[in-house]
Amino acid sequence: MQKWIQRLANASAVGMFLILIMGALVTKTESGRGCGDDWPLCNGKFVPAYTISSFIEYSHRAVVGVVTLLLVLVTLLVFLYIRRKDARWYAVGSVALTLAQAVMGALAVVWPQSSAVLALHFGLSLLAFAFSLLLALSFTSWGDYAGPSPLGARFRGFIWLVLIYTYCVVYIGAFVRHTVSSGGCTGWPLCNGEWIPEMTGATGIVFAHRIAAALLLVVIVILAALARKQYAAHRKLVLGSIWALAFVILQVFSGALVTWSLGNELAYLLTGMIHAVIIACLFGCLSYLGVLTLYSRKG
Q1: How many angstroms separate the CA atoms of 255 and 258, rounded?
Q2: Which terminus of the chain is more solvent-facing, meaning fewer CB atoms within 10 Å of its CB: N or C?
Q3: What value does the mean pLDDT take over residues 121-137?
């Protein structure tokens, strides 16, 4: 039975990853109003008339529904057959956060929300993905969190600081998308030909995101260096920090590609999707490191 639960957990994590990407696609293509102000129907129909925007929005809703049911099933099976408390927490967290982001999405359709509120939608989806990823990993060798020695309190705190800060950077990035501010800075690394542009409107929003992302790169470089220097024997900690460093570097360059693709609709869409994929992988890595600190503390 555990093998079947593991397979379902893996499918749930893949499904949550797909929801993240499809949500980014909805935002990038401005398809959020593709079904009008109807929910759960689409323009008053169970099977809507075919348009690109309605297809994107309605398929996103359908995938959310299927994955939510799958997560509920996995959660029930975990409580029936799995004794690990952490797996139960991950399962419950995945379901709760998936339902929360689905409700927020429904409310955004029926009662249009501000960009600041809409940006939280991606953040909830990201958290739900992190929980589902941790659930899937708990059935593998990566679910053995024991290390050769405890992690220092300051280092544990630093990991959580980086994780929380990453979430804030993600929120700013989602705010950039929902305010359609990507064109506020043309060119990279300069913004409109300046190192420090006028911090107003779309330019100010995009430049704030760039500064936040640059600082994120710095702190993750420090994190990876400290992990290798002070905790080289912690194989999973070191590997996780190296993967996080690789993903944040890719994230910075994918952000540059987004800027360079402005004016080419297809390239802009593709680079934006890649950007979302990488941030999901980065946040997943850092979430795993956060869990390692919790078990190190227990040890």
Answers
A1: 5
A2: N
A3: 92
Task: Supply 180's token pair.
Answer: 């359609």
Taken as a whole, the chain contains a residue count of 299
Comparing CA positions, the residue from 133, 63, 137 lying closest to residue 93 is: 133
Residue numbers annotated as active site: 57
- How does pLDDT run across 24-56, given as a tens digit for each residue? 888 777 666 666 666 666 666 666 666 777 777
Reply yes or no: is the peptide bond before residue 197 cis, omega within 30 of 0. Answer: no
Q: Give the pLDDT band (50/70/90) at residue 244.
A: very high
**174, HSE (Cβ side, Cα atoms, 13 Å):** 26
Q: Average pLDDT of the chain?
A: 87
pTM of the predicted protein model: 0.89
Contact criterion met (CB below 8 Å) for 239 and 257: no
For 212, the token pair is 């936040």
How far apart CA 43 and CA 41 sit, in angstroms, is 6
Residue with tokens 């941790």, as numbered in its chain: 134
> Which amino acid type is present at position 126?
L
